[in-house]
Amino acid sequence: LLFDNCLSMKSQKPELQQKQWAPAQYNSTGRDTLLRMDSRLGHQCHLVNTMGLLVNCNCHRHIRVIRPHIRPRVIRLHTRPRVIRPKSHPPSHPPQSHPPQAFPPPQPPQSHPPQAFPPPQPPQSHPPQGFPPPQPPQSHPPQGFPPQQPPQSHPPQGFPPPQPPQSHPPQGFPPPQAPQRHPPPPPTQGYPQQPQGYPAPSTANYQPNQLTQSSAQQPGIHQMSPPANIRSPQQQQRSLHPDQMPSAVHVLEDDLRRFQASASLSSSGTRHYESGPANIGRPPPLVTSVDRLIMTDCGSSLPTFMRPTLSSVPRTSDLLKSSGGLAMGLIVAPMMPATKSGSGGSVAIATSELGGSGGGGGEDSIVRCIRCRAYMSPYMAWLDGGRRFQCGFCGARTDTPQSYFAHLDQTGCRVDAAYRLELRLGSYELPAPGLEYRRGDRATFNESPPPGIVFAIDVSYRAVHSGLTALVCDHLRRRLPAFLPSETAPDGQTQISPRVGFLTYDRSVHFYNLSASLSQPQSLIVSDLEEPFAPLGAAISGGFLVDLSSSATLIDQLLESIPQQFAGTAVSDIILGPVVEATLDAFTSCGSVGKLVLLHTGLPTCESAPGKLLQRDNRKLLGTEKESSLLSPVGDYYEALAKRCSDSGLGVDLFVCTDAAYADVATLGQLPFITGGSLYKYASFRSDTHGNQLASDLELAVSNCLAFDCSMRIRTSAGISCSDIHGGFNIVGEGILEAGAFSSDRAVAVELRHDSKLADDDAEPVLAQCALLYTGLSGHRRVRVHNLALATTGQLADMYRSADVDATLNLLVKAALKLLLKKGPLEARSALVSPCVGILTAYRRHCVSAGSSMGQLILPETLKLLPVYVNAIVKSDAFQGADISTDDRSYLMYLCSMMDAVASNVYFYPRLMPVHHLPPSREADDESDSDEAQDGVGDGEESDSADLCELNLKQIRCSVDRLKQNGVYLLENGIVMFLWLGSKVSSTWLLSVFGVNSVANVRCDQTELPRLDTPASRLIRRLVDEIRLRRRRHLRLYIVRPGDKFESWFLNFLVEDRASDFSANGEGWGSSYVDFLLHVHKEIRSKLG
C-alpha cells in the first residue's frame, strides 16, 4: 500500500539502497515486529511488494511492520532475522506529493521468472475449499464428509483464534492520500462504455465505514468486527476494497433487471424473452436469469438447451486468435427438463406430428437435406414456388416431397409455416417411424418393447451391515410405483411405463424370475464369472423384465425377502464387471434397451472375476505432477464394457456407497460417464445418516431419464465444424456421439473451429443443429432437434459484446479436466488462467482507448466476472483437492465434466443467502440490525404460502465479511448445503425454526430441519426442498455453529476469500479474489509492456 513511500524513502536516504530487510517472523502476541536490515542483501522494494508489508521507518536500522495475523509467505533470503521489541512508535511518512494511481504501480524487475500465480505460502492443516476430506473411523455415526484430521478432544477451529487488539491500524482501503487534482480521463473509444477501472481513480461513489472517536485518526478500521474464528478482511493483505471490484451478485441482479425490462410485452400483459431473429448476435441471459424469465422460442433454441460461448462468430480464425483465448463453442443439454420454475412461466418441447407426414415410413417420411442430412429448420430457404428448398447448413438444394409441398406467400415463406412447428420453432420433436437407422448388426425399429430398468443390489457383508441392502429394498417396495416414469402412448390414452427387473450380487450374480404366472419369485444363480450370461434366456418371456403392475405381488415378496436372506452373509469379496455383462446379455437377448442402476459398496476384489481392481490409493501423489496417474482410470476393461453398453442401448447409473475404504471411482466412474448415466457417491455411508439422501437421489435418477439408445449429431454451417466434444459419452465420429441413455442433467461442451473464411454478409447467420435420436418410455423412436442461429462479425469488439461467461467457463473447465488427466494439474490450471489473462489483455490492447491509465484494470462488460470465476475454479477441489480422498477428487472431476452451465456456475460460485428474515415479520425485523435489510429479502408482507420466487430472496457475496453474528445464512453449491448460525441469532427465530432458544442448544448432527408448525419453519423447509428440486440432487444439509468442526469446511466455500490451504506443489493456488485480480492486472501490464 505504501510502496511509493518506500521508493521515496529510498531516494531520500541513500544508505537504504545497500540494505535489506530480513523476512518477518510470525509474532503470536499480535504486537509489532521489528526487522533488522542486512547490508549484504538487496531488493528491499521487491520484498516489500511481494510480502505486502506496510512499512514505516524512523532510522536506518529498524523497520516497524504492521501486518495482520497471517503467517507471511516464505521469501528466499540468506540471513537470520532478529526480532526486537519497539520502544516507541516511529512517526509516519509525510503525505505524498503525487496523486495516487487507481492500481498499484508497476513492480521493479525480478531476478527470477514471473510465476503463474502469486507467491506460494506454506501449507496449512485446514481442509481445502470444496470437498471435505475423510477422517479416521469414529465410534459415532460419521457426519457425511468430515475433515481429515487426527482425533481431537475439542472441535477443530476453522481459522486462527482472534488476536488481541492492535495498537496500530490494520491495512485498509482507501489509505490517507493527498487530494487528487486531475483524475485520469475516461476512455472515449472501444466497446463497451467502460468504467474507470477497478478500483476507480476517484472514491466519490465509495462511502467508507464511519469511524469511532478513538479511530478517527486510523483510516481503514471497520466498525463491525467479523464473526468469531473468521479472518477479518483486513487480515488478508488486501490493497483493494471488495466493493470496488466487480461483484458477482450485482452483475447477476443487473442482468435479470435488464432482461426483464427489455423483454417483449405479450398480448396478455406478461413479458417474454424471445430467442430468435430479434436477439440474434446478442448474448443470452445469464444462467441465473433464465430461471426467472418467461422464455419464448421464436425460431432459435433457448439457452436452456443450446448456449453459445459467442453469439457473434468471428469470420476468420485469425480474428478468433487475436482475442487472446475466447472459446468458440456450444454447451448442449438436449434432454434438459422442459419446464423451468420462475415467474409463473415455462418452456416446452413441442412434438410435431407433421414432420413425418410423408406416409411411406422409414427415413423418407422425414424431410431432410439431401446432402448433409440436416433436419428441417426455420432457416431453410424455399425456391421455385415451394417445390425446392435450399439447406441453410450446406447450401444444397433438395426437391420438396409431394406430401410436404405448400405454396409460398408474397414474402417467400410457406403459407403453412405458422402451423408447422419445425418451420417456426428452434426446438421440436418428430416421431421417427419405420426403420430409422442401423447400428452394426442391430436394427432399431419404431415399435419396440418398452425400455427396461434393472436394479442391481449389493448383498455383500459390507452392504448388509451398513444398512444399504435393507434400505434400498424397503424404499423400492414402498415407493417404486410412485416414481417410476411413464409416458402417454400414441393413442393418447394409455400410460406406458418401463419394465423392471431385479438382481443381487456379491461374488456371484443372482437373477430373479418374476413372471406373473408364478406363485413366488424364483432365484437363479450365475457363478460362471469368466463368461457371465443371463440364465433366463429371452429376458421378457423368462420373467426377468416384467410389468410393474402385473407382477406387483411377486416384486413385493422379493424385496421383503432379500434382506432376510442375506442377513447372515460373510462374503466380503464383490464383483462388478460380471454384473454389467450379465445384464447386458439379458437386454440384447430380447432386443430391448434400458438402464442398469448399480448400488455398489466398494472395490471389486474377487480373484476369479474380470474387472478386478487393486488397491492403488496413494494420497501423497495428490497435488503433485504425478497425481494424474492416480486420477486416471486403470486398464481398459471398464471403458470397453461401457462402450459395449452404449452400443447396445444400455445406460448405467452408479451409486457408490462406501465406508472409508478406497473404491477406485476413477475407474468405475467410466460406466456412467460413457453410457450417459449418473454418478453418486456417499462417503462413510450408513443408512441412518444417508438414508434420505440415497432414497431421494435414487428417485431422481430413475424419474429423470426419459431417453434410451441415443445417437446425437452436431451439424454446423459451411465454414464451421466440430473439433471436439467434452463431457463423456461414446464419441464415434466428428460431432457424433452415442449413449445407452441420456440423463436430463447431462450436458456436453462442443468446440468449434474454422474450416474456411465465413461470408461477409451480415444477413447470413451461422447455424448449428443438434439432433438427438432416442427411444422414449413407450418404446417409440423420436428425434429431438435444436436449431441455433448466430451472427457473424469482423470486429473484435462485437465478439466481446456477445461473449457468454457461463458457457465459456463450462467449456474451459471440461477441456481443462481432460488436460489434467493427460499432463497434470499445473497444465490444467494454466489452461484456465492463461486464457483469462489473454482475453483481458487483448481487450485492453484492441478495444480500449489508448489514453486510458495503465493503473486501471478495465474489463469487458460481458466478461467482468471472468477473474472471480477463474480464481474460484483453480482453487476448487476438482482441480486442487490435495487433502481430500482420492475417490472424492475423482467423483468431483466426473461431476464437473458432466455438468451443464447452470450446475457449473453454482458449484464454482456457491449461492449464499441470508434467511434470518424469513418470514418477513415484525418480530424478526425488530431483533435484527437495520443494515442487514440490504442483504436479505425484499420488502413486503408475503405469507408462508407465497412462491419462493415472490419472496425475492437475494444472494450475497461469498466472503466472510458479509456474515453477521446475528444472522443465519444458507449456502449451497449444487452438491452440499450449509445452514450457518451466528452466535447472536434471535431467540424468536430459533424457537420458530429449531424449537430452542439458544444457538448452543441446536443439534448440529441432524441433516434435516425439524418439522414445526410455524411460518418460519415451513418457509425454510420449502426453500431447502425447492433448492434440491432445482438442482436435481438431494443436497445434504449441514447445520454449522461458530467453532464447530464443520465451520472451516463451510468457510472454504466463501470463494472470494483466501483459501485456508495451499497446494503441496508450492504454487499457491489459493489466492483471494483481491490477490488474483492484482495478479491478473500485473500480467496484463507485463504483456502490454
TrEMBL record:
Residues 924-944 have a biased composition (Acidic residues). SUPFAM superfamilies: beta-sandwich domain of Sec23/24, C-terminal, gelsolin-like domain of Sec23/24, Helical domain of Sec23/24, vWA-like, Zn-finger domain of Sec23/24. Its main location: membrane. GO terms for cellular component: COPII vesicle coat; endoplasmic reticulum exit site; endoplasmic reticulum membrane. It holds the Pfam family Sec23_trunk. It is a peripheral membrane protein. Residues 804-902 form the Sec23/Sec24 helical domain. It is found in: Cytoplasmic vesicle, COPII-coated vesicle membrane; Endoplasmic reticulum membrane. Residues 91-189 have a biased composition (Pro residues). One of its GO terms (biological process) is COPII-coated vesicle cargo loading. InterPro entries: ADF-H/Gelsolin-like_dom_sf, Beta-sandwich_Sec23_24, Gelsolin-like_dom, Gelsolin-like_dom_sf, Sec23/24_helical_dom, Sec23/24_helical_dom_sf, Sec23/24_trunk_dom, SEC23_SEC24_subfamily. Residues 450-699 form the Sec23/Sec24 trunk domain. Keywords: Cytoplasmic vesicle, Protein transport, Transport. Residues 77-90 have a biased composition (Basic residues). It comes from the Eukaryota. The keyword Oxidoreductase does not apply. Residues 707-793 form the Sec23/Sec24 beta-sandwich domain. Residues 190-201 have a biased composition (Low complexity). Residues 202-220 have a biased composition (Polar residues). The keyword Protein transport applies. PANTHER family: SEC24-RELATED PROTEIN, SECRETORY 24CD, ISOFORM C. This is Zf-Sec23_Sec24 domain-containing protein.
